Amino acid sequence: MKNGILYKLMLVIICGLLFAGCAGGPAKQETQTSTLKVMFWDESYFFTQYGDLFTMKNPNIEIEVANMQSIYNDEEKDYDKAFAKFVEKEQPDVILLNSTENYEKFAAEGKLMDLDTLIARDKYDTETIYPALIELLKEKGGGKLYGLASSFNVNAIFYNADLFSKYGIDPPHDGMTWQEIIDTARRFPTDGDKDSRIYGYGSRYGDAFGELSSAIAMTQGLQALNPDTKKMTINSDSWKQAFQLALDGVKSKAIYDPGDNGFSGGTMEEYYKSQPFLMGRLAMTIDGPYLLQYLKEAKNAVKDYKPFQIGIVAGPVDPALPDSTRDVSFNEIFAIRADSPNADAAWEFLKFVNGEEYAKVKSRTLNNGLLSRMGVMKDYEGQSLDAFYKLKPADSSGGYMGISDAPDSFYGQYQQIKDRELDLVQKGSKSIDEALQKIQEDGQVALDKAYKEEEAKKEEGKEDTSS
Question: Residue 100: pLDDT band by 50, 70, 90 thresholds?
Answer without folding.
Answer: confident
